[in-house]
Every structure is written in structure tokens, then in C-alpha cells.
């Protein structure tokens, strides 16, 4: 592909508009509009063209916006109306089949779809858009579709509970392209919006590094990091003379421990090992440590590597055999956890 060809992203939102979503309908519009505003901003910053498609589904599936330039998107306020059952499988099939007819000429095209539902499939078998009436055949149709999608297709789903996750896995959704959200509250929907934004950020940054699609769009934290992603992100290790790794043998405040170990404490110069799920603010620096070599990588690329957007986000210390995440501490009395390490920039 010549360097002059542009990146074109086709991002689709497939939104549940069944009756049970009525208590969230205003919030759905708000979260979708926020996501579109974010996509518009990042498309300009990363010089990528983004086109947005929106489907809403209840008893039937309706495409309300098709492949429209993200910079010209209207609010979804007039377009999202709730009422009816949940034709989830029909919506998934229709959205992917119709998007597959989109021209992919002259450019590096990539398709990213988020399906958001608050309940189980219960209406596709009598939905006019469904290719089959038998639920098992519908599941097989979705699984077959996912299996045959090219490498520049990413299909992800947000479901309300473990049962929804099991059903999504039966339909062939990759495990790391399924997220569970709290469908009972506007707060839960707000968090789902953050998860979508984080996944989109990872996707768009990945595009600049030649990654065309993902089967782990929701994986954040250490399991998103490996040797290839480090090379792809253009990370260079910090010079070993510029940092020290100090074992933490008992619970202590970060400044006390640094001085007790004979070092000078500088605010922002010490990084604690991520040992539990926690919120990381946008301005906090991240460092990743390669366990085998004790090489350390930091800077904005380390954030991008973990797929973290430049907003506050919750990160899990997901187990990774090769890498450990460290987070910059800006407080003097953060409690250090025994049996972890402290990364001190010198």
C-alpha cells in the first residue's frame, strides 16, 4: 500500500432500543453523541477519516445513519426511540452484512462495530430482517459470519451479565470482544461509554501502527502488552542508569520507603506497581516493565500501548507473564503493597 493512501474507519453503533431501555434512553443519546464527538476529535488529531453508521433494534432492525462523515453527524436525539423486544442476532447480522457492501476502494479501510444490549435475544426469529427463523440457525449464522470476516473487521458486544456473555461466546464473538456493563443505571451506561471510548482509542492508535482489526478490543491492562505491541508502538526502553527497582518488603508510605532505602524522594519520580483494579487519571504517567530483562518503557506511548485514552479510566493489573504495569505516584503517602516493587526514576 502506498504511503499516500488514507486510513478510513467505518465505525458502527448497533443500539438496543427495546422497551427495557426506556429508563436509559436519554443517556443512550448522550453517550452516543459523546462517542461521536470523541471520534471526530481523534480523527482530526490522527489524520484518519471516520464514517459512522448507527443501527437501532427492537422488534425490527433499522439503520438510522449510514456511513456518514463523523464531522457532519447529527445528534441521535431524534433518531433513538424505544419500544419492543430484542432482535439482537438479527441486528448483528444485518449491520455486518450491510456494512460489508460498503466500497473499500482507494484507502486502508477498517470496520469497527459495537453492539450494545441490555438483555437476551428474544425477537430475531420473527424479525423481517432475520435470515432464519430457528434460534439455533440464527446463532450459527452469526458464528459463521464472524468466522469469515476479514482481518480488517472488528465486532464487539456489550452485554448486561454473565449469561449474555455466554450467549455472545456461543455466537462466536471473541472472548475479549465481549464486555459486561451494568444495565440498571445511567452510571452503568456512562461506564459502558468509557469502555467503548477506550476500545476505540486503542483501535485508532493501532491503525497508525498498521493493525487493521482486533480480536481483543476490550482487553486493557497488562494482557494487552507484548513484544509485538511494544515494537509497534515504537517504544524505546529507558536507559537503565536512569531508574532503579526497589523491592517493597512491608506496607509503607511511598516517600518513607524511598528515603528509608537511602534515596531522595521527588514528587512524580516514583512509580508503584499496579496490584489491584484502580482509576488512573489522564495526567498520570505509566511505565511498563519487561519481567525477563527488567527493561522499562514509559512516556505517552506506554499509555497508548495499554490502550488507555487521555481521560481518567479504570485499569486492571491483569496478569501478564511478560510485563508489569507501574503507575506514577503524585502523593507522598500512597501505601505501598508488600511483595511488589517500586520503580524510582533517578
**Largest β sheet strand count, sense and barrel closure:** 6 strands, mixed
Through-space gap between termini: 43 Å
If strands are numbered along the chain, what order do they take across the biggest sheet? 3-2-1-4-5-6
Assembly state (oligomeric)? single chain
| Shape assignment | elongated
- What structural class is derived from the secondary structure elements? alpha/beta
Computed over alpha carbons, the radius of gyration is: 22 Å
Give the proportion of residues in helices. Answer: 25-40%
Order of helices and strands: EHEEHEHEHEHHEEHEEEEHEEEE
Helices, by number, come to 8
pLDDT averaged residue by residue? 89
Instruction: Pick out the low-confidence regions.
Output: none
Number of DSSP-assigned strands: 16
* Proportion of beta-strand residues: 25-35%
Amino acid at each position: 500500500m502506498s504511503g499516500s493512501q488514507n486510513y478510513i474507519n467505518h465505525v458502527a453503533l448497533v443500539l438496543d432500543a427495546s422497551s427495557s431501555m426506556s429508563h436509559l434512553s436519554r443517556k443512550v443519546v448522550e453517550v452516543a453523541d459523546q462517542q461521536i464527538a470523541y471520534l471526530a476529535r481523534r480523527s482530526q488529531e490522527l489524520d484518519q477519516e471516520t464514517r459512522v453508521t448507527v443501527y437501532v433494534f427492537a422488534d425490527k432492525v433499522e439503520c438510522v445513519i449510514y456511513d456518514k462523515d463523523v464531522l457532519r453527524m447529527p445528534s441521535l436525539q431524534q433518531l433513538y426511540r424505544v419500544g419492543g423486544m430484542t432482535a439482537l442476532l438479527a441486528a448483528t447480522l444485518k449491520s455486518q452484512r450491510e456494512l460489508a457492501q460498503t466500497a473499500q476502494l482507494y484507502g486502508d479501510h477498517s470496520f469497527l462495530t459495537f453492539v450494545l444490549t441490555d438483555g437476551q435475544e428474544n425477537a430475531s426469529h420473527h424479525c423481517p430482517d432475520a435470515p432464519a427463523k430457528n434460534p439455533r440457525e440464527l446463532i450459527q449464522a452469526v458464528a459463521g459470519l464472524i468466522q469469515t470476516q476479514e482481518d480488517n473487521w472488528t465486532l464487539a458486544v456489550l452485554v448486561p451479565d454473565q449469561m449474555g456473555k455466554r450467549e455472545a461466546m456461543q455466537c462466536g464473538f471473541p472472548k475479549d470482544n465481549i464486555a459486561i456493563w451494568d444495565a440498571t443505571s445511567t452510571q452503568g451506561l456512562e461506564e459502558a461509554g468509557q469502555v467503548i471510548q477506550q476500545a476505540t482509542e486503542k483501535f485508532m492508535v493501532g491503525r497508525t501502527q498498521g493493525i487493521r482489526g482486533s480480536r481483543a478490543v476490550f482487553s486493557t491492562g497488562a494482557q494487552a502488552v507484548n513484544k509485538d505491541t511494544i515494537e509497534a508502538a515504537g517504544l524505546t526502553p529507558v536507559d537503565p542508569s536512569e531508574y532503579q527497582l526497589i523491592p517493597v518488603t512491608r506496607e509503607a508510605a511511598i516517600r518513607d520507603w524511598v528515603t528509608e532505602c537511602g534515596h531522595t524522594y521527588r514528587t512524580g519520580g516514583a512509580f508503584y506497581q499496579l496490584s489491584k483494579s484502580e482509576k488512573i487519571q489522564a495526567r498520570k504517567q505509566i511505565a511498563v516493565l519487561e519481567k525477563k530483562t527488567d527493561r522499562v518503557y514509559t512516556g505517552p506511548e506506554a499509555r497508548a500501548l495499554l490502550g488507555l485514552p487521555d481521560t481518567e479510566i479504570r485499569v486492571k493489573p491483569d496478569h501478564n507473564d511478560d510485563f508489569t504495569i507501574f503507575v506514577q505516584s503524585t502523593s507522598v503517602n500512597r501505601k505501598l503493597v508488600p511483595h511488589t516493587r517500586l520503580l524510582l526514576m533517578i
